[in-house]
Amino acid sequence: MEGVLDLLRGSVRVELDGKYAERAVNICARNHVDFRDLVRAPGGETRMTVSLPGYIKLREVARESGAFTVRIVRRRGAPFFLWRLRRRYALIAGLLLCLFLVGLSSLYVWQIDVVGNETVSSSRILAALREEGVDIGTCILDISNKWISNSMLLRIPELSFITLNTHGSRIEVVVREEIPRPELIDPDAAVSVVAGKAGVITLMEVDEGWAVRAPGDTVIPGDELVSPYVPLGTGRMTHARARVWARTWYELTMKMPLETVRKTYTGREKTRFSVILGGKRINFYFSGGNPYSECDKMTSYRRLKLPGGAMLPVTVVRDRFEEFTTRSDVLTREAAGAILSARLLAELEEQIGDGHIVYTDYTEDLTDGMLTVTLTAECVEQIAAERALTDGEAARLRDAPAGQP
Amino acid sequence: MKKRGEKLLRLTELFDVPGEAALGVPRVTVTGGHKAHIENHRGLLEYETDRITVNAAGLLVRVRGDGLEISAMSDMELVITGTILSVELVR
Description:
The structure holds 2 protein chains of 2 kinds. Chain A is α+β, with helices and mostly antiparallel strands. Chain A has helices spanning 2-9, 21-30, 52-65, 78-84, 89-105, 122-131, 145-155, 333-352, 391-399; strands at 11-17, 35-40, 46-51, 69-76, 111-115, 159-167, 170-177, 191-195, 199-208, 210-211, 218-219, 224-227, 229-230, 236-237, 241-257, 259-277, 280-283, 295-305, 311-330, 355-367, 370-382, 384-388. Chain A has a 5-stranded antiparallel β-sheet, with helices on one face. A 4-stranded antiparallel β-sheet of chain A has the order 2-3-1-4. Chain B is an alpha+beta fold. Chain B has a single domain, classed as Immunoglobulin-like (Sandwich), CATH 2.60.40.2000. Chain B is 19% helix and 56% strand. The model of chain B has no long low-confidence stretch (mean pLDDT 83).
């Protein structure tokens, strides 16, 4: 450790020339000139090592005391090395330029980290920031935290708080997401339950309100199932809530040509590299565009980072082109039918939501090379939907004779 | 004066106070026969490669050995390295 410090701050090996070495050493110690590696040379001279500031002090002490003289034997360390380079103007200019560039680069954003987000993705926040003019390569002096925070809250309503903390060239975007309000049910609001889909009712579970339909009834979308007016006693208006299951029927159709185009890769491929430096892209190739008439292009971005994990504002972009040729291929009717059947079933499952499929039937028709598959299905699903009554409708309900909603 | 010093020394022993801190009495630590650490010295009296004598408040510390060096020294302490054969306290 001492050796490293010596190299950094500089050290001098000196020879003390005087009649009494002990006296010189004691004078040094008394005047707080710290030294080390004191040896008595065979010729009687005393040698010791002092730091560069210690050497300056030692010369003063020697001059004032007059008891000994100091002669330099060896100089070591960065200060002496730099002093030797003082006439190498190009080197000094390069060093100054380097320092200038490092200082200049610290004025630009090298890295943006988003913290505190859970449901809003970081990419969405970064994209919004980019639209606000904050991106890799943006000058930090141009970033107004207050202005950007306000704009970001308007751009992403799910955020309740955002701030940009600048740590050198790194910007830390701290966000807090809005806690969604729970759905409040107004018990006094006149809301009825209506059918969201056409079907035959199989089961009704009424939590609130007055059921105006019963299992076995056929309903179409919009038909009232549960009324908000409860005709008991003097009658009261309520917020109707119910779950109603019904048998529903679907008929879905999809088409597909049996003749398709299939890709065959030739094995020829080409890779191009480019670098994104602070938002500016530098291509390491001359001709743009695709190198083949028919090819796939895969682009990968790799951000360079230092061994400690600190990100650099340099992204290496690799574009890989793979050539392919196309040829016609004819699917068998069975294969095409299986593809369409699977797609239709997936579509049906998406449509029914809270329910299940009771029965399915597929019919196929092949005309002019086009296969048409039709899915007919019966399901049981929840069809209840809430509808708020207008003031007029609510008033009419209240005025109706008891028992006749 | 000497009596006063002895009384103070006894007092520090009574209260278990380290003498080198309270009275500035010398403290000599020898490590493994190759290193001697002397605290509260008053200066170097003699320096040869086979003998170093240090003034240490009321007594002399003489280190005998071979290839002796003063590897570090300040106004309060010094470190002697080399092959140490003996350490004498001379009153």
